[in-house]
Each structure stands twice: as C-alpha cells, then as structure tokens.
Amino acid sequence: MTAPAPADREVRRILTPDGVGIASTAFGPPEGTPVVFIHGFSQSGLCWNRQTSSPALAGLRLVTYDFRGHGASDRPSDPAAYQSAEVWAGELDAVIRGWGLERPVLVGWSYAGRIIGDYLAVHGTAGIGGIVFVDAVTANERRFYGTCNKLMRLMCSTDVEENIAATRTFLRRCFAAPIPQPLFEQLLAVNMMVPPQVRSALFGRTADYEDLLKRLDVPTLVAQGALDEVVAPAMAEHIAATIPGARLDLYGGIGHAPFIEAADRFNAALAAFAAAAAATSGAVAR
After folding, report:
1. For residue 190, which of 171, 165, 169 has the smallest C-alpha distance?
2. Would you tell me how many other CB atoms lie within 10 Å of the CB of residue 231?
3. How far is CA 31 from CA 58, 164, 205, in A?
4. List of residues 6+ apart from 95 with CB closer than 8 A
5. Which end of the chain has less neighbouring CB within 10 Å, N or C?
6. pLDDT by residue (tens digit) across 59-114?
C-alpha cells in the first residue's frame, strides 16, 4: 500500500479522559469534510491505508487512530480500561476534539461498531454528520456471527506459537481472496503488537445498541462483504433494517474487509456519502 506524501500527513498523540495516550494521524486539507476511521479487533489505523492514500478521498480530512491497547497507543493492563461504554466513548470524543473536527462522518469496521454504539450512548448524534458501518458488530446473537469465534479466542492465548498460528489463520479468513504478501505481513505485524490480555479484555461486553439504532437520526451507510466469515451478512441486514433510512451496500465475492478487497468501490461510495452527509449537516446548521 502506497503511503501518502509527508506533507499530507500529521501525527498527534491525544489524551483520553481516563489518561490513555492515543496515536492518531490526519491526512488531507484541514478544511475538508472530516472522516474518522475506527479499526477493528487487533488491528490499527494502518488498515485504512487504501483510504488515506486514495485520490477519490483526497479532498477530505481523513483521521485514523489506534484505539487503546492497539498499535502505537497506550496499553492499559487493567481489563476495566476496556469494559465500559464511557471509556470508549470518551476516547473517540477525545480524537474528534483533539483534531477540532466539526460533525465528522464515523467509519467503523467490525469491533468498531461497538465503539460507535458506545459513543452514541454517551454523546448522541449532535457532534457527528453520519455513520458508515463496515462489517460491523452491534449485537450479540449467534446468528449474526461467522465461524471465526474460536480463532479469536485462540488469539488471546499466552502460548506464543498458538497465538501466532490463530492470528495468521484469522487474518487469511478476513479476505475472500488471497491478499498481497506485503500487506499480509503488515497486518500480521500490527496484530502481534496487541498483547493477548488486551485482546481478551475486549471480549465479554454486551453489544446492546438496538434502541439507539432505532432512534438514529444521521445518514447511515452499512457496507458488508457477502462472503464475510467473521461477521455474517445477517448482522448488516439487521443494522440496515433497524436504522431509519439506512442503506445497505452488499459487496458480492468480498470478505470481512471490503475497504481493502474492493477499495476503489468503497472509496467512491464513501466520497459520495461524505459529500451528502456534509450537505445534510450544512442544512441542519442553517
């Protein structure tokens, strides 16, 4: 994946309300429509490289961050630092405020569906312009999940050999087709930066955002790979059916990461969505 030119990239360390240092990067013009990307379980902000380097999104203000325990951010050892809606909502709000973003579009992949739900529970929708759920998690029912749950549990193992083997297999199953070796190596390296106790701490939280989604009043796009083995398409269908006015965009032949496997299509859809959301936010502001 091609990295953007240094002039287009700014790095900041942002402190959350509970004192966790968060690594965050912004790309593009400060005056552009803001978009905040939130990665998934055991990943980092680097997973969005095909968005931050995309000409289709070049006019937007794109912000990525490594959420707590991941990438270059702090790794609290206390499991309680990963368990409440308040800490996740406070972290995302700190990123938004840290960059001075006005009503950003939130793009959340996989586990980030929970983080967006936590943000909505604490802060509501007044500070955001729209949401893109990407193969996202917002409920606990078994029918909404694929066949990778056991692998994700093995990724929490303190047995290094077992952990690496599970992580490698999990990553391969995130994609419907083989991905380039350099990308696989980068994703594996990022995953192995996350301590097993941090991975373990992410489990056990109830995902109960149904009432919030029913009342959601911002533009919402639900993107989903039809061949996802991690989060079943039934989850996306449920999210789209629950949120008033939400649109479902199903990617045929694509796995858990359509923004990587079908980056051009995803980026075009995101650019159009961000433009429409900005126009809606402007109309609301007037």
Report:
1. 171
2. 25
3. 12, 42, 37
4. 14, 22, 24, 36, 63, 65
5. C
6. 999 999 999 999 999 999 999 999 999 999 999 999 999 999 999 999 999 999 99
CA 187, 14, 133, 120 torsion: positive or negative? positive
Measured from the Cβ of residue 83, the count of other Cβ atoms closer than 10 Å reads 14
Q: Secondary structure of the chain in the HEC alphabet?
A: CCCCCHHHEEEEEEECCCCCEEEEEEECCCCCCEEEEECCCCCCHHHHHHHHCCHHHCCCEEEEECCCCCCCCCCCCCHHHHCCHHHHHHHHHHHHHHCCCCCCEEEEECCHHHHHHHHHHHHCCCCCCEEEEECCCCECCHHHECCCHHHHHHCCCCCHHHHHHHHHHHHHHCCCCCCCHHHHHHHHHHHHCCCHHHHHHCCCCCCECHHHHHCCCCCEEEEEECCCCCECHHHHHHHHHHCCCCEEEEECCCCCCHHHHCHHHHHHHHHHHHHHHHHHHHHHHC
Q: How many CB atoms lie within 10 A of CB 148?
A: 19
130, 107 contact by CB (below 8 A): no
